[in-house]
Amino acid sequence: MGYFPLYLVFLGFSTVTLAATLEVGTARSFIRIEDALSKARQGDVISVYPGDYQKTALLVKTPNLHLKAAAGKVTLDGTGFNYSGKGAIPRAIIQFEASASDSTLEGFVLVNASNESFNGAGVRINQANNITIRNCVIQKNEMGIMSNGSVKGNTATNQLIEGCLISDNGTQKQAGYNHNLYLGGTSVMIRKCEVARSVTGHNIKSRAHITRVEDCYVHDSANREFDLVDGAGNTDVPASDAFLVANKIVKSPSCSGNRSVIHFGKDGDARHDGTLYLMRNQIVSPYVSPVVDVSDGNGVHFHDNTIDGANLTLYNMRGPNAKASGSGNTFPAKFTSALLPCAEQHGLSKEAK
Q: Against a cut of 0.85, is the pTM above it?
């Protein structure tokens, strides 16, 4: 009886080709990542070795593709390239199109992306599902990570951003409109990341239906640390919730913009039909401005948080249906309580540390 080649599996009259590893670097199969990408098929790994990767622009359309740094961190530098989004040009150093679902990006340093719209990003997720960005450094781009999608289309689901340093992204050329993360779509998880020092905007801005941020260090934003706001077709769906769990969140003592820590609600015309859940966070702010500003939605639930700072205002409920509740929280001995109606009934009483 004969044998079959290892790279083929015969199933009746069909064949399945096993995934390949395409190596990029000096003396490798490919010099440019773009050339490897043009040959890659579903399930392949593009393994990138250290080298000179200037003006890299990757528009990923292949599903289940895995871009990985082969040794240490590999830098992709966008200096001098216009990430315009025109034709086959991405709006980011690496952009995942809808057809690129189930892909991963791991181990890269992505820096200096820009374009004429002032939103050149390190990474963009354009309606793709199940995209994982892991162990990357994303710095000094006009936008760190951007994503978009919709609940109705079931797109941009299960975005996972894990173990990344995302910092110092933004530009003064359109101040306040560029952020370390600017996210949309159905669902996103940010886990074990450091997000810091947005240049002019927010550290984390999200219009996604569900946003979860867990075990992260978020600090020193030029504006809010979190801006969790409306997106038509995403947050006007019931249960458009945000979960901040076990994070350390620290305001800069020299914040140049909005001094509230977390905004949940809306900055546009759509509803935000959801609740903000704060659980086991450590939050530090030196300002009187509200720790949580709720402009729409069902309100905020505080559970087992430690909140510290001088003369704090805990929350401002501007949304017509917004309520506060909670239990097990620890606050400083003094904070402003003018905006704390019925605080004693909701487990939000003052508790000196």
A: yes
